[in-house]
């Protein structure tokens, strides 16, 4: 202690410093601050406890949300629990404004928010997985579309839950639903396609047993890639049946084979195109989960993708069935295209109703692929037909075959097959046009190849105006007919060229070959002189008339009347010229007498041989030609025979023919060819 004993203690050197003693006032202030802070901390703890208690879930809520197996019976409880959880999560968001920022920043609050968000994500994942499994299992349980619709509507509370929390998951569920619907549609489409194939296979067996053994009937049911020869006996039976109405009526209806394919494809289109549009509308209604009922739409993809999903299932079966219309069945693509064209027009001009825009582009894309398949098959069939004609002509052009082959050639084998394809396509169009159909019984109203003796032809769709049917069906029919017309015009040009090329190899048999084949064409197209095939029919008529005139001229020469007709034509020219002075006689009296004597010598025998020749040429293939050509020959000869004496008496007043007109007419009558029906 320092001297004096008073004052502050003096620290010793090297010892610890001593604190100054606070003033009483400072101590009081500090105590007040601690008391205030203690009260504030207590209130904050009370607030935190209150918030945590508010964020706590009910006793069963967390258990329900974390339960791994969700069932349809527990959907209501799950949705209620999820709603409770969502309210807690929303209250912690910065946008809700439910909590001030300093409270949200508290560690306990943030930790609880992370826990609730994780619980929400897990519950949502379980809900989405459950909906996906229910939708995917729906089409495996044998339910139909209506059942799947009802089941999806029962899941709407879960869909609404996904729509509020995760639109991307809602789009995922929508696609899963569309995939389930597509699976059901694909199953139905497969059944329809298989039914069409089964019907075609059954008809193939039936027709193989029922049809006569002709190349055309065989070609109707032949395996793809096979061809058939044309034996003369079978050719005669075929062509005779075409001219004989009784035989034609008894022949089985080969086009029903193609009708099985066409009907199957049309049923697929008529069923699933409207159904795809309707199903997208139903999907929009089921997935309209907002309060106003509007569809929130997919989050990451355009709505067209959903249309493609719905169309993909049945669309693949439609494409598969269309791909089978090739080879021998390729021309059936023409009536099938009528349905495709009709639906393209309907979809293009359809209204803008809900759902139609989303699926129309997918349907139009499918129809474009079907059109490309069918059109390509038809074009390939036409090209194959032309190639077959060229091969046939090339085979007949060899030196080893040309001499004998032309003599034995009658109707070229590719021609009946071409004409049969015309009949088959017409029959398929008549039996099953595009669009809604109330068709008569099978075989009613079919066009035929029946000839002149067969009576008037039955109605053909190629003779009807496109406006006879309303709207899209008529447009589709017209487009298909235009395609058929182009193909047949090309094939007809190739057939005429091939016939002419084969006929040109032999001057003796050439006119007969041309006439025999052209008459078959004329018989086919006689019912098409009006309508889309009028120009084709007109060309056939022109070629047939020219071939008939050339053949008649050849037969006149055959029985020795060519000099007589040539003299008569020359006398016509001289008598019609009316010169100022009488021209010199075109033939001397002795030469005229000798010429007429030679022409009439053995005339009955010559006419009899001509009659047998006509029967040999046309008795089997075109029997109606025999009396027609005979009558034309008789009319030409009698007309000239009657005029010649009057013309020659201008120079030789005493001239007379060795036969009178009645005598010549009697010669023709006595040798007239008599046709008898060939034995079967």
Would you kindly provide a written description of the structure presented here, covering whatever features stand out?
- One of its GO terms (biological process) is exocytosis.
- Residues 1-24, 429-469 are annotated as: Disordered.
- One of its GO terms (cellular component) is plasma membrane.
- GO terms for molecular function: phosphatidylinositol-4,5-bisphosphate binding.
- Residues 10-23 have a biased composition (Pro residues).
- By secondary structure, the chain is mostly helical.
- Among the domains are: 61-165; 559-576 and 586-670, no CATH class.
- 69% of the residues lie in helices and 0% in strands.
- The protein has 25 helices and no strands.
- The protein has helices at residues 24-55, 61-66, 75-91, 101-104, 107-138, 145-154, 156-165, 167-210, 215-221, 232-243, 245-250, 256-286, 304-323, 333-348, 356-396, 399-408, 414-431, 471-503, 510-525, 534-558, 562-577, 589-600, 603-618, 625-648, 661-670.
- The N and C termini lie far apart (161 Å).
- Residues 210-255, 290-303, 351-355 and 433-469 have low confidence and may be disordered.
Distance between the termini: 161 Å
User: What general outline do the C-alpha atoms trace?
Assistant: rod-shaped
Largest sheet: none
Backbone CA Rg: 48 Å
Low-confidence stretches: 210-255, 290-303, 351-355, 433-469
| Elements, N to C (H/E) | HHHHHHHHHHHHHHHHHHHHHHHHH
Strand content: under 5%
Number of strand segments: 0
Compute the average pLDDT. Answer: 73
Return the structural class.
Answer: mainly alpha
């Amino acid at each position: 202690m320092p001297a004096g004993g008073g004052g502050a203690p003096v620290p010793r050197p090297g010892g610890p410093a001593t604190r100054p003693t606070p003033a009483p006032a400072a101590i009081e202030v500090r105590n007040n601050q601690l008391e205030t802070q203690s009260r504030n901390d207590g209130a904050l703890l009370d607030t935190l406890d209150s918030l945590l208690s508010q964020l706590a879930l009910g006793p069963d809520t967390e258990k329900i949300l974390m339960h791994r197996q969700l069932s349809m019976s527990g959907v209501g409880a799950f949705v209620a629990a999820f709603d409770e959880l969502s309210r807690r999560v929303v209250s912690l968001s910065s946008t809700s404004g439910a909590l001030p920022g300093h409270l949200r920043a508290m560690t306990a609050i943030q930790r609880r928010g992370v826990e609730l968000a994780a619980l929400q994500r897990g519950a949502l994942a379980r809900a989405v997985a459950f909906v996906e499994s229910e939708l995917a299992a729906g089409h495996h349980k044998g339910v139909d579309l209506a059942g799947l619709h009802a089941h999806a509507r029962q899941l709407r509370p879960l869909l609404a839950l996904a729509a509020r929390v995760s639109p991307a998951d809602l789009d995922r569920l929508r696609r899963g639903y569309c995939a389930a619907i597509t699976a059901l549609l694909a199953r139905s489409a497969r059944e329809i396609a298989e039914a069409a194939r089964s019907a075609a296979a059954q008809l193939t067996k039936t027709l193989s047993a029922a049809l006569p053994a002709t190349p055309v009937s065989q070609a109707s049911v032949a395996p793809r890639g096979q061809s058939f020869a044309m034996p003369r006996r079978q050719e005669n039976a075929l062509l005779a049946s075409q001219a004989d109405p009784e035989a034609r009526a008894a022949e089985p209806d080969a086009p029903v084979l193609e009708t099985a394919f066409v009907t199957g494809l049309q049923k697929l289109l008529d069923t699933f195109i409207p159904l795809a549009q309707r199903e997208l509308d139903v999907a929009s209604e089921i997935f309209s989960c907002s309060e106003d009922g509007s569809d929130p739409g997919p989050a990451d993809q355009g709505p067209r993708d959903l249309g493609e999903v719905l169309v993909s299932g049945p669309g693949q079966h439609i494409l598969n069935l269309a791909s089978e219309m090739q080879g021998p069945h390729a021309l059936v693509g023409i009536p099938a295209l009528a349905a495709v064209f009709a639906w393209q027009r309907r979809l293009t001009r359809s209204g803008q109703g809900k759902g139609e825009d989303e699926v129309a582009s997918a349907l139009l894309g499918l129809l474009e692929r079907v059109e490309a398949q069918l059109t390509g098959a038809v074009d390939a069939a036409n090209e194959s037909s032309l190639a077959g004609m060229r091969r046939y002509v090339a085979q007949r052009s060899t030196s080893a075959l040309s001499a004998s082959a032309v003599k034995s050639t009658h109707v070229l084998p590719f021609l009946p097959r071409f004409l049969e394809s015309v009949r088959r396509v017409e029959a398929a169009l008549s039996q099953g046009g595009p669009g809604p159909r109330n068709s008569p019984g099978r075989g009613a109203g079919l066009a035929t190849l029946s000839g002149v003796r067969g009576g008037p032809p039955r109605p053909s769709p190629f003779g009807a105006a496109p406006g006879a049917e309303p709207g899209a069906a008529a447009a589709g029919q017209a487009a298909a007919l235009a395609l058929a017309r182009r193909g047949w015009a090309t094939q007809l040009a190739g057939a005429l060229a091939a016939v002419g090329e084969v006929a040109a190899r032999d001057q003796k048999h050439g006119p007969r070959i041309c006439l025999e084949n052209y008459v078959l064409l004329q018989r086919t197209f006689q019912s098409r002189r009006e309508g889309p095939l009028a120009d084709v029919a007109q060309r056939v008529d022109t070629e047939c008339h020219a071939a008939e005139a050339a053949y008649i001229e050849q037969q006149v020469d055959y029985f020795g009347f060519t000099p007589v007709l040539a003299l008569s034509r020359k006398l016509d020219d001289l008598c019609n010229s009316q010169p100022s002075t009488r021209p010199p006689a075109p033939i001397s009296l002795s030469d005229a007498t000798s010429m007429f004597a030679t022409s009439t010598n053995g005339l009955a025998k010559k006419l009899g041989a001509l009659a047998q020749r006509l029967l040999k040429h046309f008795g089997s293939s075109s029997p109606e030609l025999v009396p027609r050509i005979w009558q034309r020959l008789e009319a030409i000869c009698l007309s000239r025979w009657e005029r010649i004496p009057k013309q020659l008496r201008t120079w030789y007043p005493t001239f007379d023919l060795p036969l009178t007109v009645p005598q010549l007419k009697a010669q023709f009558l006595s040798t007239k060819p008599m046709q008898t029906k060939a034995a079967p």
